[in-house]
């Protein structure tokens, strides 16, 4: 499987697409000025306790206070509190925890008022971004993730990912990490550390200790609330968590971001930075040049066609309580001899698409999938196992229940960011609640604007290009004479037509040779 990362930047956002064999599997959108992202570390102040919830509300600078439950405090929260107080007061002047005297661990079944009081300063980390009207969800069980290791301050424990099955390899990794681990810190060994040498692990550990030093220096500033540590940009985080030999290309349209990613890739995979390519040429945005915008439009929306299924499709509905996905059979054979066999085949293809949709849209909570009815229990089991296999590619925590007696499969999936919702329908300006089918009336408006440009700009009205939806572009250039040819005869100007996948049906722009707007509508 060949994986590819495509990163496109705008004025205030970054879009990241992860492709597998050319097919869009994950899509991330991140605001450049986004605060309160998962993994960010803050120094906050406890605003109030909520004993009935066994939780506290913490001011970290967001419009709504962050929510901290007792179970998210972590066993070493008292040590973290004491360390924070000593560092901010200047009584402890080292990020090294070797000489730090730890406090006792808190009880698993304790209450929030035994640990925190209103007005306390506390170091926290965001585990769930603000969603809708809710503030961030946070934890005081601090961890700093690297490529191979995760650093956990105030813990001495070394643990290994359960996905590493070999006991001999686990023992080898634990022995190596124990030999380099600084006192006062715990280490979690990630799955990708399997087979790595001590030098690679040590380099990753040094990288994490440098981050902890940044946290230490920011605590010394004694500003509350304050961001102590930024989680890395989303593109680099994807590389950190996903990069392997399957990645064959990374395409970026921004020189600075490409430089940052090259620097990070040199840390986690020396010698692999050559796969990063900068593509800033062309008047059409990167996602459109690479066909990603077209895939987005095909992949989002209520109805999603399932490739290679002879017309089967998904209907995805969203409610307040859950998501419902219905698998429709399309042109599946209805003969009694092969209906069960065909149903299983289509259901397996649909299960793969369901797994992809959950990753692509980052759907969370409860998802109920209604597959095509099957009567054979072995087939039901085969479908369940196939879905579990497909969902193993999903890094989000999830649980899949076996088919119910009604043939429904229920999935719970953790969501730490707002669900990605891209609107693919296009409104008709002449009628409410209707979709546009043919924007024929647009031509007259285009011609009027074109006439105004030529009349007002005079000789400057050269190298005019018209950016439009692909369907409209085809309409403008078809036939003899085409509408474009008629414009040439009328205005003595040849208009370059540029199809834009991201444009709505009625959207168009006239651009000059510098790709700046002559005029803009819609």
Oligomer: single chain
Helix content: 25-40%
**Unreliable stretches covering 5 or more consecutive residues:** none
- What class would the helix/strand composition place it in? alpha+beta
Strand count, sense and barrel status of the largest sheet are: 6 strands, antiparallel
Question: How many strands appear in the DSSP assignment?
Answer: 27
Percentage beta strand:
25-35%
Keywords: Hydrolase, Magnesium, Metal-binding, RNA-binding
Domain RNA-binding protein AU-1/Ribonuclease E/G: 143-416
InterPro entries: NA-bd_OB-fold, RNA-bd_AU-1/RNase_E/G, RNase_E/G
Protein name: Rne/Rng family ribonuclease
Report on this structure.
The chain has 522 residues and is of the alpha+beta class. The chain has 4 domains: 3-34 and 233-294, ATPase, nucleotide binding domain (Nucleotidyltransferase, domain 5); 41-229, OB fold (Dihydrolipoamide Acetyltransferase, E2P); 300-413, 3-Layer(aba) Sandwich (Aminopeptidase), CATH 3.40.630; 436-520. 30% of the residues lie in helices and 26% in strands. It contains 12 helices and 27 strands. The chain has helices spanning 77-89, 167-180, 198-219, 234-242, 255-268, 286-289, 292-299, 339-361, 377-391, 442-457, 470-477, 483-491, and strands at residues 3-9, 13-20, 23-31, 41-50, 55-59, 66-69, 121-128, 137-139, 144-145, 149-153, 158-160, 185-189, 226-229, 247-252, 276-278, 303-305, 313-318, 323-328, 365-370, 398-400, 408-413, 427-428, 431-435, 465-468, 496-499, 508-511, 517-520. The strands form 6 sheets. Strands 4, 5, 6, 7, 8 and 13 form a 6-stranded antiparallel sheet that branches. A 6-stranded mixed sheet has the order 16-17-18-19-21-20, with helices on one face. β2 and β3 (23-31) form a beta hairpin. α4 runs parallel beside α5 (255-268). The model has no long low-confidence stretch (mean pLDDT 87). This is Rne/Rng family ribonuclease. Keywords: Hydrolase, Magnesium, Metal-binding, RNA-binding. It comes from Moheibacter lacus.
């Amino acid at each position: 499987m060949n994986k590819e990362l495509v990163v496109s930047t705008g004025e205030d956002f970054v879009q990241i697409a992860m492709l597998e064999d050319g097919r869009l599997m994950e899509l991330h959108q991140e605001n450049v000025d986004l605060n309160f992202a998962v993994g960010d570390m803050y120094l906050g102040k406890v605003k109030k306790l909520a004993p009935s919830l066994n939780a506290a509300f913490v001011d970290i600078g967001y419009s709504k206070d962050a929510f901290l439950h007792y179970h998210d405090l972590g066993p070493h929260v008292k040590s973290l509190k004491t360390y924070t107080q000593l560092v901010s007061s200047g009584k402890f002047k080292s990020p090294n925890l070797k000489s730090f005297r730890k406090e006792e661990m808190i009880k698993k079944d304790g209450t929030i008022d035994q640990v925190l009081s209103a007005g306390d300063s506390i170091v926290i980390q965001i585990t769930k971004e603000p969603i809708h009207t809710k503030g961030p969800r946070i934890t005081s069980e601090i961890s700093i993730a690297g490529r191979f290791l995760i650093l956990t301050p105030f813990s001495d424990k070394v643990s290994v990912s359960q996905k590493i099955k070999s006991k001999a390899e686990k023992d080898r990794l634990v022995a190596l990490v124990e030999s380099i681990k600084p006192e006062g810190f715990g280490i979690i060994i990630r799955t990708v550390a399997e087979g790595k040498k001590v030098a690679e692990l040590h380099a990753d550990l040094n990288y994490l200790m440098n981050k902890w030093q940044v946290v230490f220096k920011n605590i010394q500033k004694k500003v509350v609330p304050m961001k102590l540590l930024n989680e890395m940009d989303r593109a680099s985080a994807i590389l950190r968590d996903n990069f392997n030999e399957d990645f064959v290309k990374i395409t970026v349209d921004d020189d600075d971001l490409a430089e940052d990613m090259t620097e990070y890739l040199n840390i986690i995979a020396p010698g692999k930075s050559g796969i990063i390519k900068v593509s800033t040429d062309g008047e059409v945005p990167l996602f459109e040049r690479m066909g990603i915008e077209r895939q987005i439009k095909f992949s989002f929306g209520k109805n999603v066609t399932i490739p290679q299924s002879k017309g089967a499709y998904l209907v995805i509905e969203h409610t307040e309580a859950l998501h419902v996905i219905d698998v429709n059979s399309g042109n599946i054979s209805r003969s009694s001899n092969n209906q069960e066999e065909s149903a299983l085949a289509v259901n397996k293809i649909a299960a793969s698409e369901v797994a992809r949709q959950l990753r692509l849209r980052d759907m969370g909570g409860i998802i109920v999938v209604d597959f095509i009815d099957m009567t054979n229990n072995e087939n039901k089991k085969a479908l369940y196992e196939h879905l579990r296999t497909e969902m193993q590619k999903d890094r989000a925590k999830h649980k899949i229940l076996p088919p119910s007696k009604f043939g429904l499969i229920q999935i719970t999936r953790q969501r730490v960011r707002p669900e990605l919702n891209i609107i693919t329908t296009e409104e008709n300006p002449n009628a409410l609640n209707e979709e546009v089918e043919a924007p024929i009336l647009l031509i007259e408006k285009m011609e009027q604007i074109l006439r105004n440009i030529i009349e007002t700009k005079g000789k400057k009205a050269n190298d005019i290009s018209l950016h439009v939806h692909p369907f409209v572009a085809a309409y403008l250039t078809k036939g003899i004479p085409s509408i474009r040819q008629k414009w040439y005869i009328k205005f003595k100007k040849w208009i370059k037509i540029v199809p834009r996948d991201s444009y709505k049906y009625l959207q168009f722009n006239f651009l000059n040779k510098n790709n700046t707007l002559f005029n803009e509508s819609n």
